[in-house]
Amino acid sequence: MEAMVKIKINNTPLRVAQGTTILDAAKELNIKIPTLCYHPDLCIAGSCRICVVEEKRARTLLASCCTPVAEGMEILTNTKKVRTARKHIIAMMLSEHAENCVHCFKNMNCELQSLSREYSVETQNLINICKPEELDISSPSIKKDFAKCIRCQRCVRTCADLQHVTALTAAHKGSEMKIATFLEKPLAEVVCTNCGQCVNRCPTGALTEQSYVEAVWNAINSPDKHVVVQTAPAVRVAIGEELGYDPGNRLTGKMVTALKRIGFNTVFDTDFTADLTIMEEGTELLTRLKKALKDKEPAPLPQYTSCSPGWIKYIEHEFPDQLEKVSTCKSPQQMFGALAKTYYAQKAEVDPKDIVVVSIMPCTAKKFEAGRPEMWSSGFRDVDYVLTTRELALMIEQTGIDFRNLEPSHFDSLMGMSTGAGVIFGATGGVMEAAIRTVYEIVTGREIPFKNLEVAPVRGMEGVKEASLKLEGCLPEWDFLEGVELRVAVAHGLVNARKVAKQVEAGNSPYHFIEIMACPGGCLGGGGQPIPTNCDIRLARAKAIYEEDESMELRKSHENPEVTMIYKDFLKEPLGHKSHKLLHTTYTKRKKY
After folding, report:
1. C-alpha closest to that of 270 among 348, 365, 386
2. Which of 100, 242, 261, 531: disulfide with 393, CB 3.0–4.6 Å?
């Protein structure tokens, strides 16, 4: 039985489990203690001291985020001594901080700014000793302005503990301490996966996404350009958080209406090419299994998914010898871009050189992916600009749209119809579940034997999930799979991806198919999603994604009539010549440091 201790917080008695921090104990009484270096996704640092509290028997103030409760503690969170200490700490941070809030991308969503207002640090009583830092705009995904850094090290812990990349680290000591990259090289030249998780946890504007909002406005306002927009599944369940809604609201129809009001010529759904990805990737998996099980030849198994550009860059750096195991399918974003400038251009009778493809993505790594040299298979750059969910919200506000009172509308046809399988791509395990729904039916001619098509073992926020499904009653052309127990795994967050890849490297992997997403929770926890992020928020978004899936008439990728039509009219067949040219890609072996 768990040991309990009795304490008082602001004279209110409370019993909590032994080992609970003062910060977490205060939360049980709905008492807010301010923090900066603390983040619920990360290990405790206790470095900023904003969270100090007074304990009647203690000689000094205690950092509540890292101090466990003890029997008989009497904690005060709002005394004059506490408020004065917090105010002085904020003032010292501001003295080392660039004073250009009005021009900062994080203006009005900056934790330091909010605390300054909350504690009435209205004038700067200390000399500003902010050191000029060179702005790093080398990365297509992330902008680094360490003149705004408060050295909380959230980004360092995110990169090291959450993602196991360590592109950022704490360098030097004392007053010279700073957050730096390896040898202080530009972000574009170090092993950065562009995932943006550091951006999501940075409390100030030291790390932000590279913004292409103005470039998109220029394209929309150009009479010579035909601007097509696509939206990823995770955007529709998160955009509301930037516009005043609680996490977990499905706002698909309102979002589509807003995009049309902004001025995009055509509004399409990335879920369409998510369905297309299942057709290509599922066929690729079956082809590899046939080679291994029927032809008895070496085949690159297990097959990794390729939808996450952060994961792709990670494996290119960390496990380049496993690249042959990665599906050659482009991500749904890039498939869409290639088809927009070929298939759609033909149907709409628009010169592809005049088409501008804009992606609304939950992911900062998509900005990097769009610029990869492999992504010009249409004869043009497949995707021209990538905006995050946050950037879309900014455009909605700039347009003056009353989002709450918008009437919902539908995506445009041709590349706008999707199924529930495409929608669940936004959650960890979604690609795997969508693939199983289709592959099982192709092989057996029957629906998967799960209630409501729900493949429960691959759902949830566990770091690594696994499942197996025995294939029985296979159709004649798939008889070599009869009795095979299909083994799959799902990992999200690069620290978990590393565990799975290490197992494959050691030759101990029992799996046939592995889904990996770079971000915690999958795309719904992407580096371009609304801030803040935590497990509860990600769970609310996941719940909304699965509800969207359940509400849809079509829930299996191979039943999408627009996917059927594009194969009939244009691509001919999965893994065919045209599909291979437009929808598949190659990867690059990259060096570590």
Report:
1. 386
2. 242
- pTM higher than 0.85 for the full model? yes
Of the candidates 280, 577, 561, the one whose C-alpha atom is nearest the C-alpha of residue 439 is 280
**Residue 260 designated active-site:** no
The matching CATH number, chosen from 3.30.2350.10, 3.20.20.80, 3.10.20.740, 3.40.50.300, for 4-78 is 3.10.20.740
- Residue among 55, 111, 242, 369 flagged as catalytic: 369
Between the CA atoms of 424, 426, 429 and 434, what dihedral angle is there, to the nearest 10 degrees?
Answer: 30
Give residue-wise pLDDT tens across range 465-520. 999 999 999 999 999 999 999 999 999 999 999 999 999 999 999 999 999 999 99
Catalytic, 366? Answer yes
Q: Does domain 225-272+333-405 have CATH number 3.40.50.2000?
A: no
Catalytic residue among 64, 327, 359, 579: 327
User: Is residue 369 among the annotated active site residues?
Assistant: yes
66 catalytic residue (yes or no): no
Q: Is residue 123 pLDDT above 90, yes or no? A: no
- Domain ranges for the chain: 4-78, 91-209, 225-272+333-405, 278-331+417-583
Please confirm, yes or no, whether 327 is among the known catalytic residues.
yes
Q: Is the peptide bond before 510 cis (omega within 30 degrees of 0)?
A: no
Specify the pLDDT at position 162. 94
Out of 330, 523, 548, 556, the active site residue is: 523
Mean pLDDT of the chain: 96
Query: Which one of the listed residues 307, 329, 474, 519 is annotated catalytic?
Result: 307
- The pLDDT assigned to 512 comes to 98
Alpha-carbon distances, residue 212 vs 140, 366, 367 (angstroms): 10, 13, 9
Each residue's pLDDT tens digit, 354-403? 999 999 999 999 999 999 999 999 999 999 999 999 999 999 999 999 99
The residue assigned the tokens 């969910």 is: 389
